[in-house]
Design brief:
By secondary structure, the chain is of the alpha+beta class. The protein has 2 domains: about 10-105, Phosphorylase Kinase, domain 1 (2-Layer Sandwich); about 115-334, Alpha-Beta Complex (Aminoglycoside 3'-phosphotransferase, Chain: A, domain 2). It is built from 10 helices and 12 strands. The strands form 4 sheets. It has a 5-stranded antiparallel sheet, sandwiched between helices. A 3-stranded antiparallel sheet has the order 6-9-12, with no helix packed on it. Strands 7-8 form a two-stranded antiparallel ribbon. The two termini are about 30 Å apart.
Length: about 325
């Protein structure tokens, strides 16, 4: 199983005024006005920076070697190949003389996060439905970037590295690996394993029939997109954070947002999200079988993570299969 190596570094919040100004000088972006930590940020990687040259997002404290080279590749290509709003130009400085680590700098995109309290307070039912539609349309647009290779971007060589075996083998190995890992923190019964294997077996032919791949963001969730309202209504105004992107089955991007809706009890929004995506996509052959496997993958990850960090929010007496089944069954109702 392909695994990126993560390493710790200095926290970006420790950046000084002098360092931030040196960074702005390097890219001729004016004088520093202010900086602040965002409310939505992962691993302490981002900082909002305001200067006389504009509003920017500084991303540092790299999670793995070549992270920002990889993200730049995806941002540039999405900008050139699709109509999805991404933070461009995506500037990268691989030198470490300013902060002690490499970093990237990108324009700050307009809009608000879906779960921002000020946004949630004013959304009507119709607004929420339109947002679900816009999210589906945005994913379908991203997935128009198609390739024949199934694989991951190699930032060292700056090429797409095909999976060592088939895409199906790579995906199935990941699911089985994380299911086994979940045993360290929770009860995974033989019945659960049998249920998982039955799903994988049933979907084998659907994955073997895949002949081309597309861009897959790998982490399409509320933290990684922004929404804006204008005369035409609600729309996605920005998508960012492509650290987990690769080339594979585009349906893999659907479970994260679907599960977000289902976890919130918004079943109608989950169904609308999926149905609108299908109406804008050609990915209908084997959709249910493929979606089922990708949702299984997401549920395995969510289950294991919640138990590992002691953040289980559901009935702890539920078996994994009983807990995951309602999420997997949603595709049959689209």
């Amino acid at each position: 199983m392909t695994t990126k190596i993560f390493f710790a570094s200095n926290q970006i919040a420790r950046a000084t005024t002098e360092q931030l100004q040196r960074m702005l000088d390097r890219f001729h972006l004016g004088r520093l006005i202010s900086s602040e930590k965002p409310n939505h940020g992962v691993m302490g990687q981002t900082l909002f920076v305001s200067s006389t040259g504009g509003e920017f997002v500084l991303k540092g404290n790299p999670l793995f070697e070549g992270q920002f080279i990889e993200e730049k590749f995806f941002v540039q290509n999405l900008h050139e190949r699709t109509h999805v709003p991404v933070p461009t130009p995506y500037l990268v400085d691989e030198s470490t003389d300013i902060f002690g680590w490499s970093y990237s700098l990108m324009p700050r995109l307009p809009g608000a996060h879906l779960h921002a309290p000020e946004l949630q307070a004013k959304l009507s039912t119709a607004d929420r439905m339109r947002i679900a539609e816009s999210l589906a349309e945005t994913l379908a647009e991203m997935h128009t970037w198609q390739t024949r290779e199934f694989g991951e971007f190699d930032p060292r060589r700056e090429v797409v590295r095909p999976f060592q075996s088939s895409y199906k083998v790579w995906l199935y190995r990941r699911i089985r690996y994380w299911l086994e890992d979940a045993r360290k923190y929770s009860q995974i019964s033989p019945k659960d394993v049998k249920w998982v294997e039955g799903i994988l077996e049933k979907a084998e032919q659907a994955f073997e029939n895949l002949t081309s791949s597309s861009f897959v963001m790998g982490d399409f969730k509320p933290d990684n997109f922004l929404l804006e309202h204008d005369a035409d209504g609600w729309h996605v105004s920005g998508v960012f954070d492509f650290t987990t992107a690769y080339f594979g089955d585009p349906i893999a991007d659907l479970p994260r947002m679907t599960a977000t809706y289902l976890d919130s009890g918004e079943v109608d929004l989950a169904k609308r999200f999926l149905s609108v995506y299908l109406s804008h996509s050609t990915e209908r052959d084997g959709f249910i079988e493929r979606f089922t496997v990708h949702m299984l993958h997401q549920r395995v990850l969510d289950w294991g993570c919640a138990w590992a960090i002691n953040q289980v929010t559901w009935d702890t007496h539920l078996s994994f299969s009983d807990w995951a089944k309602p999420f997997i069954d949603i595709s049959a109702h689209v």
